[in-house]
Amino acid sequence: MRASVFRSIPHGAWPAKPPAVAPLREVPSGAGASPAPELWAGVHLPGWDSAEKLGSLAARAQRFTPRVSLAPPDGLLLEVRGSLHLFAGVTGLRSAFMSECVRFKVQPVLAFAPTPLAALTAARAGKALEVLNAAQLVGQLAPLPLTALRWPEETLARLTRLGVHTVGAVLRLPRAGFARRFGAAQLATLDLLTGRAPDVRAAFRPRERFRRRREPGCEIASHDLLLAALAPLFADLGVFLRARQCGVTELECLLTHRQRQVTRCVLRLAAPCADAQRLAGLLGEHLSALQLPEAVRTCELRADSLVPHRQGSENLWQPGEQGGGAARETSGLIERLRARLGPEAVQGLGLLEGHRPESSWSLTAPPALTSPPAGDAAHAPIHPCGSAQRPLWLLAAPQPLAMQNGRPRRRGPLRLVSEPERIETGWWDGGEITRDYYTAIDIHGVRLWVFRERAAPHGWFLHGVFG
After folding, report:
1. What is the pLDDT of residue 360?
2. Cβ contacts of 438-444, under 8 Å, gap ≥ 24
3. Domains of the chain
4. What is the pTM (predicted TM-score) of this model?
């Protein structure tokens, strides 16, 4: 028989409400455990101001940890808690990183702390701290100068006048009063510094590029065999681009010879492309126009600049029909013409700042063809002269027109069908013009762009023809 034990409780001693008791449940081993605390290495690079050099060092730093963040212009952050056992602790990792920086000819300052901003602030202050425990963080940060936080000069000057020079002194100030006088942004910085708020850093991603090289079994002297040798490289390129949802606008092919210099062939595209078969065909057009100085020993494909590429869907309407776009066909035509006639044979038109019609445009490379969303006003073309109409065909030099009773003539009298548009500009560089432009129609219905000079003898000129 089970024994029961009772205890006598005086009347009125029962609690008004029994205390809430959390139900017990079995927790598997390791489940619900708090994640291991982070440990950040802050790297300060005195005198650095090059984004390219900072990116190169960040790429090399990924051999220590995959979590690398940039702190431009002269700082890096590495989360190294999971890497310490690979380098025999903090001391070994510090030594290995310093050795890596030798090739960059820089002597960095390296500090370790549980929060990224604390590690970076200590490094900027020139203190090689090793704070591995969050409980010691504030005490180790207290002597650091406020200048290491890189707050605005006005804020630092006001704190100096109050006698606040160190991180510890500013942490002792009342939070509410500090936020009112110096701003919530500075208070948020202190919270990130001490770990009161999470500090989320964007991970560094090195620029990806494609490089593949192949050495055929024998030297190649014909273009057909060369294209066959390049086919596996293009297959690799297609897989590479599809995996990253990227395209290329420029592709380089390098052909090495036994005794001659490397032959370089560059394919430039009018629009981003990720189709390896199309790229192979266009490069074949370029290679067919090359005269190989000698047999090819090795061939290499390079794509150093990748751009985001989203595969477009087929249009319901055909090009030229209502709603049918021709961007894809246009870019393909430009690329084929470039491949067969040379890059200088295809030009685009660019707008220049200015109101003189003859000097408001220039020849440029064909622009990248994109299809902005329908109705998107932000992508609408903007003419430098506002809503005024301009002819597609602008004459190289205005042609004088005959006059009769002060009215222009060209194969008969011209009928002016628009209000005058006055252009007066260029007085500052010696090319001054003062003209009144009109849209005119001749006896055959051709729309012309004519102007009348405001200065004597007030001649009429033809400057353009509308389509």
Report:
1. 76
2. 439/389, 439/466, 440/408, 440/414, 440/415, 440/416, 441/414, 441/415, 441/417, 442/410, 442/411, 442/412, 442/414, 442/415, 443/411, 443/412, 443/413, 444/411
3. 40-194 (3.30.70), 210-308 (3.30.1490.100), 393-465 (no CATH)
4. 0.55
